[in-house]
Amino acid sequence: MGSSPAYPSDLTDAQWALIEPLVPVLSTRGRGTRGGRPPKYPRRRIVEAILYVVRTSCSWRQLPHDFPPWTTVYFYFQSWTADGTVDRIHDTLRDAARDAAGRDPMASAGAIDSQSVPGAATVGTATRGYDAGKKINGRKRHLVVDTLGLLIVVLVTAASVQDRDGGIQVLDRAKTVMPSLALTWADAAYSRRVQEFAAGALGIVVQVVAKLVGQSGFVPLPRRWMVERTHAWITGHRRLARDYERRPEHAEAMIKWAMIGLMARRLAPAPGRRPWQRTKAA
């Protein structure tokens, strides 16, 4: 990193060591990996630039000048989303985080939920909608997480898509990614149609956790709270407080990058990054 200033979203050497083997060797745009000049910018700095955007919500064009040019960063963000690199990094770190917690990397249980977020002006009418229940015009994130709150899959749709329809799609995707998944906890929005499809076609039991009698306002419910916490982790990244992405697959990639940063910090904590961890000067 040389003399470049360190941002809170930057990776430590230990965190980069977790990610580096999973990031393809860069090739010059328009050229193959053989011959030609070597890449001008290091992979680490491009990854850190993406994490910076996710954490700060700056536009691509307003990336600080100590990062590679925004066009280069955005090019690799698109490429790594399309070729599956983001999925490989995310899934590998999730397996490592589960293993570090003493869990089998292949989860058997999890939770499902959705979250509607406002769509920015960059979200086109073809991929946005109105959630009448939440009174939000934008997109909806359908998440399936494991019992640690780590993301298994995410599906981004228009906010007008009902949970019963999005639930079927995201559970189908989850079973492909995590064939061992056999039980998910959900709220009452996941109707009998979702439960019957999941049980019959996927071999997944969808167990509804009902609200407490007399409940008013938000109350953490058994088994369901784990996915609510994941929503909080995600929206703690300013880029994800609303949806800015033109394409739903890029919105999904942003969520995965947020979880990549979270899991890297969990697997390799950075000493001294928080005020109470800093040693006092003598």
Shape: globular
- Parts with pLDDT < 50 across at least 5 consecutive residues: none
| Approximate helicity band | 25-40%
Task: Supply Rg.
Answer: 20 Å
Helical/strand content category: alpha/beta
State the total count of DSSP E strands: 6
- As a percent range, the share of strand residues is 5-15%
Please sum up the structure shown.
With 282 residues, the chain is of the alpha/beta class. 38% of the residues lie in helices and 14% in strands.
Write a structural description.
The chain is 38% helix and 14% strand. By secondary structure, the chain is an alpha/beta fold. The chain is globular, with a radius of gyration of 20 Å. The model has no long low-confidence stretch (mean pLDDT 90).
Reconstruct the topology from this structure.
Elements: H1 13-19, H2 43-56, H3 70-82, H4 85-100, E1 109-118, E2 129-131, E3 136-146, E4 151-158, H5 163-177, E5 183-186, H6 192-202, E6 205-208, H7 225-235, H8 248-267
Parallel strand pairs: 1-5, 5-6
Antiparallel strand pairs: 1-3, 2-3, 3-4
Helix pairs in contact: 2-3, 2-8, 4-8, 5-6
Name the descriptors.
alpha/beta
